[in-house]
Amino acid sequence: MTVKNINKKTSQKSILWITDPWNTLDHPNDTTLRLIEESLICGHKNFWCDVKSIRIENAEVKLNAFQVLSLGTSRIADEIQLGQPKSWSPEKFTHICYRTDPPVDHAYLLPLQILNLKLRDHKKVKMINSIETLFSANEKMEGLALHKLFPMSVVSSEHEHLMRFCQREGTTVLKPLFQAQSKGVKVLDSKKLTTREIEGYLRSETQNFQVPVILQRFLPGILKGEQRLWYVRGQLVGLARKRPKSGQAVINMDEGGTLVTTTLNVRETKAAKQIGAYLKKQKIDWAAVDLIDGYVTDFNFTSPGLIPLMEKVTGKNLAAKIISVFR
Description:
Layout: E1 14-19, H1 31-41, E2 45-50, E3 55-57, E4 60-70, E5 81-82, E6 86-88, E7 95-98, H2 106-119, E8 126-128, H3 131-136, E9 153-156, H4 159-169, E10 171-176, E11 186-189, H5 195-205, E12 213-217, E13 226-232, E14 235-243, E15 258-260, H6 266-281, E16 286-292, E17 295-300, H7 307-314, H8 318-322
Parallel strand pairs: 1-2, 1-7, 7-8
Antiparallel strand pairs: 2-4, 3-4, 4-5, 4-6, 9-12, 10-11, 10-12, 13-14, 13-16, 14-15, 16-17
Helix pairs in contact: 4-5
């Protein structure tokens, strides 16, 4: 997929893409590389950086970056051409896209803090998404700001509050607050699990009732899948349905989950508009949001993905719309 009519008024940008180490990427299906591909078509200079190279050296914030010269015809690793690595200061780029995958732990947050030391006084460098968003907004809890669109939930580390919610609801969904891609997600069904087994899961995920987790009301619509909505500055640019493996209530795209085309019903359309207005108000540039039965179950603004697969199933060039933020 390519854009044939390049906007001639678009000025060339110098864009740094920060991801997990190169050998951990699924290159043909990686959203970041797909966005770089579209950015190259638009004539921007693109650079790639391993998050681990971000450092303070001789009292200066530095990182190693490779210019992306070509991604070949299919973005497979052997076809991608990178320039020689060079030590850079982060303020040398017009845009920086920090797209390392969760967990949002020290390995994720500390490089951001290092970048912030340099960038907080350089207003001409645009971070996508902003450092403020990546620091302060939690992807599992952000839906609470949308009030009635957030399913009945409890966020706590205390045994009493968590167990009371489980007993009241009967079936709940347990999620760590710092993970993604369904990691650590468990359905706690009181008809299938004993009280001791449920307590065991809660004890494990809360690290002996020390770390908060989120418990949500089980939404039956998950058996048919969840809607993945992709936004750019509050505008809905693409959607698809993630379906779980047959017989499962947790979607894992790496373990049998599938993606299909979808449409929004009246309730979902209303929810999508409310989500877009909220993202625009919060000045969140890129976000993917998941809906089940019209309820917001997940935000993703650390490294919203699935674009190559969504493009494949929808036949639409979504990457071109997403990189419009550089214009």
